[in-house]
Amino acid sequence: MMNGFKAVVIFVLAMLLQKAAFAAEVVELPPEELAQESVLPVFDRPVSVRNRTIVTNKKFEVDGFYSYAMTEPIANVSKLGIGIYYNTSESHAWGLLVGKHSTGLSSYAEQLDKQFNLDFARAPYPDLTTMLDYNLKAFYGKMSISKSIVFNTLLFGSASAGMVKYIHKSYPAVAVGMGQKFYFTKDWAVRFDLRLYAHQAPVPFLASRMKTTDPTPEYSEFEERLTFTTNLDVGLSYLF
Amino acid sequence: MRKILLLLIASSMMVPAGTFAQRKKSFSPKKASASSSSSRESTLRNQLSNALRQAQGGQYEAAANALFSLSRRPELADERAQIKYILGTMLIELKLYQTAAFQFVDVIRMKNPKYSKLAIEKLSIVADTLGDDTILNYAISRVDLNDFPSNLKDMIHFRLGEISLRNRDFTKASDLFSRVGSGSSYYYQALFNKGLAEMEGSQPAVAVGTFNKMLDARRRAPVTDTNKVAAQLGLARALYQKQDWEGSIEAYAQVPRDTVLWHDAVFEQSWAMLRAARFRSALSNFQTLHSAYYEDFYMPESLLLRSIVYLYICKYDEMEKVLSLFEKTYGPVRSKIGDFLKSTSDAASFYAEVEKANSMKISEKGSGLRLPYIVSRNVLDQGDVKRSMNYLEKLNQEKRRVEANSAFRASPLGQYALKIIANRGRNTKFAIGDMVKAHLLNMRVELRDLYEQAGFIRYEMITGRKESIKKKIAGKDLGAEQIDENIDRQFYIQNGYEYYPFKGEYWLDEVGNYHYLGKQSCE
């Protein structure tokens, strides 16, 4: 993951340096053609954009996403999911998210197993997350990334409520977050969501029960506590 | 102001007592049978004294109610001018300006030597607050300017200047406006109107000086200060009239964008650019003027101007598009105005139409209008209509003030005030209806002329196309090369632009920054 981030930084820097290398001659333009001040025109009904390219109002949207649990220590950090949303206006959208967690353990748990012979596969792990999601579409914008490519962007806040089903039991959960969509066509967008989940969950650390030599624990033996998990979702969104 | 009012009331309280004493002396010995009427009169005078005391004590509502009923008593006919005058001042305190105005008009009609003059002063102030020209003219026509107190002279000079300007007596108007002192709240408006009178009087060079003076005086004001912006636009117009195209373009460019005058400035600047043969700059302005942000604006001339600019640079295809847009947009507008004028005769219907459009400006634009929205909106933006609508709003505010107080509303004075407001409101609506009709008639004539011009422009386009084809056949055409043919995005970025490929999506922060990149297609 870290390496990926480094690669992106290097790529961006390379692009910037490339621009600097192509310093062209200074072209004189008549000053009256440039804006004289930075204030905006006054309208009776001020709106930031007219003829917007991406119209979401009264439209459905389907998302397929991969979710990465950034603060999950033991269970597998990956989840695949699907979401369906209905946009009631250009500001609000309501949707249903379903995510299927991958089975197995995180690399950190495997490391603990190797080093200390701790088998966290004995602990209950999350299986399915189902949430009702509300999106407040706060900012519609655009971004030019090359001479001829413009992405429209949408920054939104999200609030969700639903259930996180563990292998043995379901827990009510809430989540808040924010997300960003980059529309590369009028219908298709890359969607990023950062969410903080809060719900009761079993604590996977149970004294004298995690080593392979220990007696196998019952799932009910694990204590429960309020757990916070940060999730980053990356997916594709289709508007129709 | 409050001190003066208290002094006035206090002095007034002495007057009835004195008058009463004198009367008592002259009447009491004569007839014993008059004793009952005398006692009634005495009661009335006590009531009057009480009312004046209430006025002095700041109980304006109670005082106004008492004075109103006393002003109708025949026994107090001699004091009526005085009672009505004080009643008027009470109503001013209660912010019932229209009702107050009627009291002052009554006093003026009574020709009371003492109170008529005072009433004229007060009426001027009230009419000025209401923005009611009729009352103001009534007040001004009944007074010798030299008799007016010096603190009101600036206002009177300003209003008289306005009247002269309307009567197209520009020299007199300019003289009257220049008499408004620099300390007056009318000073900047007077300066602006002075410049306007000078321009109308074909003295653009003098007007440039006037507008520069105004700008100089407002130098430290905020960028969107109304007086400053108006002066800037006035200066640009004066320079245009002086045929100083470059100076005019520069002056128009200084009009800030977050003022309502900016749109006019951009359009007028485009004319100046055409006259200065800066076609590319003019066409850049049209990207803004004809953007989605101005879809509700009535501006047929701007489309014709755009087509003329295209004619100058031999862009016949673009010209054709713009002329078609003109016909597509303003053809239905023209016929709807014609139909409306044919089918409507009463002023109330004309008013009702613009009133509907006026409320649509606040809420969402909807259907139900017989005229196109752009037409109603344009009519609403006309100075006389706007002013009368403001007056109507002031009447509504007064009505709300009366209705908000249920006790006052039920009182005879409250009922009287509501009746006055209703009458004035009805008459104002009729007056606005007449104004709307006049504007619609003007628009119909203007559109007919513009259609004629569009026909000429189309003729020029066809001729130009013919010549172009001839040149093409002779191998003399310029080809389709554009000015930005060999320039990439780097060119714009290095010159301080933000560059996005245009996808027909208009952003508020881009309005005014669009640039036309085509070039001449003429040989």
UniProtKB/TrEMBL annotation, chain A:
The keyword Signal applies. It comes from Bdellovibrio reynosensis. This is Outer membrane beta-barrel domain-containing protein. Keywords: Signal. NCBIfam families: OMP_myx_plus. The keyword Signal applies. It comes from the Bacteria. Residues 1-23 form the signal peptide.
UniProtKB/TrEMBL annotation, chain B:
Residues 1-21 form the signal peptide. Residues 26-48 are annotated as: Disordered. Residues 29-39 have a biased composition (Low complexity). Keywords: Signal. This is Tetratricopeptide repeat protein.
